[in-house]
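User: ok so my PI wants both of these folded by tonight, can you help

Assistant: No problem, let's get them done. Here's the first:
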Amino acid sequence: MEEKKSPKANLENKKLMFIQIGLIISLLIAWLAFEHKSYDKRELDASLLNREVVLDEEMVEITKQEEQKPQPVEVPKQTTQLEIVENEVETEDLNINAEVDQTEVIEEYVAPEVVEEEVVEQEIFQIVEEMPSFPGGEAELMKYVGSHIKYPQIARETGIQGRVFVGFVVEPDGSISNVKLLRGIGGGCDEEAMRVIKSLPKWKPGKQRGKAVRVSYQIPVFFKLQ
């Protein structure tokens, strides 16, 4: 006689059976999932392959465009209007002698000589009947020169002093011209003396036989250190 299994043994057998069924179901699900992925991969490869084929079909051959030649520009024709002179207009007759004898002498044209006028410089007198004078006399002349002289710095530093003689011409209108150095002492004193003489106001001109003339004149300019 078969031995009766206890209720506890029956419960363990049922648990074991459920575990086996669960393993079988899990394996089945894993297998289905693997097959599904393989199927998707095959479809993806096929779609990419089809896409490449489509791209190859859509390629269009590039053709070189023909260069367009510039069309010539039409230049409007210029028309020249001619003025018609009526026959009634009178014209002067020109007497042209085309027949010339070889023995006939033809005078050559000689241009007139241009005579340049010589500018005669007025004579400069050394001594005249009435000598030129500074307004106010020689005292005012020395006062003017002394008040306008600026002692040069170089001459002051080197101790240069003395007299500078300057010559000039008093013109008939009393102005001063032809200022020149007659004797100098250097150190910038010569240039300073000539500068002051050139700045002199107009003089009373010298006269010869009652007529104002050019007169040569000279004065000393003193430089003295104090």
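One down. Here's the second:
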Amino acid sequence: MTATATDVLFTTELRPNRSATPGAVRRLALILCVILIPAGMIFIYVGAWPVFGFLGLELVALIVLLKLHHRRGYMVERIVLTAEDLSVERLDPWGRRQCWSFQRHWVQVNLENADDLNGNLELRSHGKALTIGAFLTPPERSEAASTLRRALLNVCRPCAQQVV
């Protein structure tokens, strides 16, 4: 049985790790409010009322940063391997979708600086390069690279056996 060009032979999703749930982010924001608002009231009581405004600004900035950090956790990179190509679909936290496609026969999986936090996992073909999994930890990046290489090798192996 041979695979057609549209049959999915391998698929995986890469997602960032986030330990906090939306409820945990809300609880942390509530705890910050419970601590900083009474602290600001104390400053108003002793006559240092400008401090209350700055505490309020800090509180708003902390909550916004918590929300943005948590929202980044919703990024997804889908990698699909068919008989003809390897395609990558990236969906960012705001719903924007980007797609790339590489010919399966020519794509290379390159892992640069595997132990470095700023290392790159790249898909390369015909002078084009795409960095994937930038949000992964170094061990996760290494595992993703070996999984992709294995999948590409397993798809190519039947082709090499038919030639012989």
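The beta strands are 8-14, 76-82, 85-91, 97-103, 108-112, 120-125, 128-132. The mean pLDDT is 85. Good luck tonight!
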